[in-house]
């Protein structure tokens, strides 16, 4: 158990990274669009996520009140860019593989702290955990980088007319989901590296003469 403190840190970092991965997948602020026409998008700001697009509108709302309208992306929306659909699939994979990594780490730590000396089992559990952590980190890195590239190049999206969204923003910036995803990538990759670096302690038998 005294040699597994780094793997305990691995579990802590992996847990936080997995939580941040889940958070980034759930929030809508991936790309923040600033639009000039405020007829429908009253605040002039719309949020483009990987599952839906949302904006604030005062239309058909009593004075002094505002309402948030959201349109969920459907599988038939061929105009939605590939980086959004890729983010949906890759983040789901990252959530599952990260959970598998945490599970393997938990069993490895359980055996180590209970004093079980099954070298092959414990080593393999930490190696499997490290593999899943790194896989999860890479699955988060791809959509985060791809969407950040789209933001920095101010790429447009041809939304269906029912979305009431312009095809091009006046300007756009990275939303909160992207930096959260970047932190998740760092933590998951660190967890994977630490887990793969585990070495079972070598015991030296000494005989007294």
TrEMBL record:
Signal peptide bounds: none
Provenance organism: Pterocles burchelli
One cellular component term from this protein's GO annotations in UniProt: plasma membrane
Subcellular location: Cell junction, Tight junction; Cell membrane
Family classification: Belongs to the claudin family.
Membrane topology term: Multi-pass membrane protein
Keywords: Cell junction, Cell membrane, Membrane, Tight junction, Transmembrane, Transmembrane helix
InterPro entries named among the record's database cross-references: Claudin, PMP22/EMP/MP20/Claudin
Pfam families the UniProt entry points to: Claudin_2 (PF13903)
MF GO annotations: structural molecule activity
Transmembrane segments: 6-28, 40-59, 85-109, 121-146, 176-200
Name used for this protein in its record: CLD34 protein
Gene3D superfamilies: 1.20.140.150
